[in-house]
Specification:
- The structure is a homodimer of 303-residue chains.
- Chain A has a single domain, classed as Ribokinase (UDP-N-acetylmuramoyl-L-alanine:D-glutamate ligase).
- Chain A is globular and about 65 Å long.
- Chain A has 11 helices and 13 strands.
- With 303 residues, chain A is α/β, with parallel strands linked by helices.
- The longest helix of chain A has 18 residues.
- The termini of chain A are far apart.
- In chain A, helix 1 packs parallel to helix 8 and helix 3 packs parallel to helix 5.
- The first copy, chain A, has a 9-stranded mixed β-sheet, with helices on both faces. In chain A, strands 3-2-6-7 form a 4-stranded mixed β-sheet.
- At the A-B interface, strand 13, helix 9 and helix 11 of A face strand 13, helix 9 and helix 11 of B.
Chain lengths: 303, 303
Amino acid sequence: MSLVVVGSIALDSIETPGGSVEKALGGSAVYASIAASYRTPVRMVGIVGEDFRDEHRAVLEARKIDCTGVETVAGGRTFHWKGKYGVDPNQRETLATELNVFEDFRPALPEGWEDTRWLFLGNIDPELQLDLLNQCTGKPFAGCDTMNYWIEGKREELLKVLEKVNLLFVNDSEARQLSGESNLYLAAREIMSLGPEIVVIKKGEHGAFLMTRDLLHIAPAFPLEAVLDPTGAGDVFAGGFLGSLASDGKVNEDNLRRALVYGTILASFTCEKLSVDGISAREVNEIGERIDRFLEIMKIEHL
Amino acid sequence: MSLVVVGSIALDSIETPGGSVEKALGGSAVYASIAASYRTPVRMVGIVGEDFRDEHRAVLEARKIDCTGVETVAGGRTFHWKGKYGVDPNQRETLATELNVFEDFRPALPEGWEDTRWLFLGNIDPELQLDLLNQCTGKPFAGCDTMNYWIEGKREELLKVLEKVNLLFVNDSEARQLSGESNLYLAAREIMSLGPEIVVIKKGEHGAFLMTRDLLHIAPAFPLEAVLDPTGAGDVFAGGFLGSLASDGKVNEDNLRRALVYGTILASFTCEKLSVDGISAREVNEIGERIDRFLEIMKIEHL
């Protein structure tokens, strides 16, 4: 079943010790949509300016992402983020953030998308996330991302979103900030009490875990000997996760475990190249081979 | 087959937000020996003073640990460590370190132990580790632990040890310090080039991985909702790991994977109580149940 993805569409300028790009395709909706597109049809909602060129659209088209929901603002400029990574890829410095057309983004579901059954709300203002949830008539399974900025600055609005969504993706520090618990398993439990029946906590190079009332599943990250550009890895993880669930068409224990693996594997690909290059043109068998390798690495025979 | 364990025997005074103990049983040899004893007979080499009391010996006797190699110095005092943990159990402050009899420790294998096939060199001066290795006539499979203090202060001696041992246990920061590589997989590879054919990197709450020329195996930590006292967890991990290998009697892929799980599970127990209380009196079925739970948490069906 198709997944609707809402979030930022950006042109990213990224500096790393191993290479740089200027105004390359980026943004939470873009990373998540590309990742999800390997498992399920994707419909994207976002906003761009006139500087969003054919070469950028071509990447999305190649992944058969339906961009009917992407508004182009005449005379406007696309959201631009500029950042720099250190030798340690965990060290990231933001050099510039120009919201541009994204500042006035009011996401609207195109006609016919209101009854979507699967929804990913990328990391945007919780007021907009709430607005979009209210546009849905089909009681979708909704996964949501957020960040420290909203947890601190729009906590009340975020809490309203959490009451309505089924799944929250957060990283470890966001989970602690949101819950007030330093132990991540207690933090996940606390977040579940705020609404989402599924909480996925992302720990970057240390992997991720998902918790429901009945299930705890932990997966390490796929081992990488070199990380070039981790931009968007969290969005790719979430997109891969929800794309897998939407493809399975049903939320149950096996499908959740499978989704965690897909998210993990796709996130590993995106770290290996600049911008979306690590995930924009993968062959399905490459993904399958890495999943097999991942299972091999964690394999435990009967003890 | 029996495992010879060499290391510190200590009386630890530990303060945590959840409780404190004064001069309780501790030390790398003690934690590792107790852990290993669940899988294999253990022979311990160490040194204590007259303040090492019957109640301390009783814990080791209950685990059937052979203490023939433990020297008691008349009129001497046992190594004493005093430390304090914060609400975040990763925050540890050392309040006092009194080497006492440990300062003059020259470990000697008792008669009949020289041909041991399995050896764990706990975190002590690499000169002493080397001395002990040279006392072994049976070409043992030797696992070794070390720390930042020796990596910095006795690097050359440590490198000589690494040439002779089969396995090195280090934590993530020690691996980076020893290898000069920030990526942990590259660090493990670099350390293998220094001698050990097996490198195990411990990442605390983030789990551990082992690398050989042919195998990479990653395991997350067992999920704990409360960590009371992580003292000795690394020693317990190493002891559990080598106890499992020695019990299997052979180093191969399956046995290494199994050893990593045993180390992981025993380390989780020790964090739950003060001093050695978390591991000193476990029932074998408790360990088995936690292993089953661990496998359940990581279970992935065919994708």
